[in-house]
Amino acid sequence: MSAGRHSNRAVAAPPEEVSRGAFRSGCPVMQSLVAAAISPPMRSVPFTRWRRIAFAISLFLLAATVALVAVRGFSLGLDFTGGLALEARSAVPFDTASLRAALAASGHADAVIQLTDAGRSVLVRIQDADGASAEAVRAALGPAARIVSEDSVGPKVSGELLRSGLLSCLLAVSAIAIYVWWRFEVRFGLSACLTTFHDVAMMLGFFALTGLTFDLTSVAALLLVAGYSINDTVIVFDRIREERGHYGAMPLPEVIDLAITDTLRRTLMTSGTTLATTISLMLFGGPVLFGFAAATTFGIALGTLSSIFIAAPLLLVLPGPVDTAAKAAPDEAFRP
User: Fold this and answer.
1) For a designed S-S bond to 334, which of 109, 167, 180, 249 qualifies (C-beta 3.0 to 4.6 A apart)?
2) Which residues form a coiled coil (predicted)?
3) Distance of alpha carbon 52 from alpha carbon 148, whole angstroms
């Protein structure tokens, strides 16, 4: 009866206990059998081997982002600068030189003119938001122009919107970091925080490089990408913790590779379907949605790559424990 109970306990024992007993016994056959039993069921892609290349590329792009923002800055939209934005269409293409000369004659030489739809659609932005300035822009456009939209924002409101936008980004990233910190451990939270800041910074560089208008819609794109990126990161982190419990003897880099490989199909399918939607918006949504769609397309692709090549490999270089259970393992062979 005791033998039967002993046999049942041996079968039900966790893999870590069986493996430690086998390694203590020194039996080569038992060691081989235990290693095969606790080995991962599939081959994993060695993503962590490429972490130095990924980190180097990331640091280079971050430095380029800082340089772009310092040299070129942002094309701030009406929400942040204040003024008047007037969009018009015409059956014949607008003449940029004539339009600029007419605006300069009315005292708006610094007006920003953007042509789309082969020159048949124009967006004019000026710093003044009063009624006289709006009439001057209409006169410069000519009687053949049809006004599509007209928006005006005062300087006080634009300053408040800018502060609110920056504060919302800061609070969102901080809340994300606190959540991951609480949900997992210190190292995971720090990695998620750094990766989210990395993605947001790279998106700012994208706006500086492309010259797309940076307005409240752009802030919404930043927040959307930050949330999407952290969603991918949390899924990978959760799988790392799960695999860490299953394969306690496996070195940490192999656990990370296995976790990323296990979630890779889900990540690519989810990102692919989302990118199909944002690309459709970018191609067919018109000039109003183009900036938002282009930014989210870039950000979602960036967030997918950063969750694979930045967030998870950062666990190997950041200080702090990854799994408290690993500390309790008495055998050196079972420590990463």
Assistant:
1) 249
2) none
3) 51
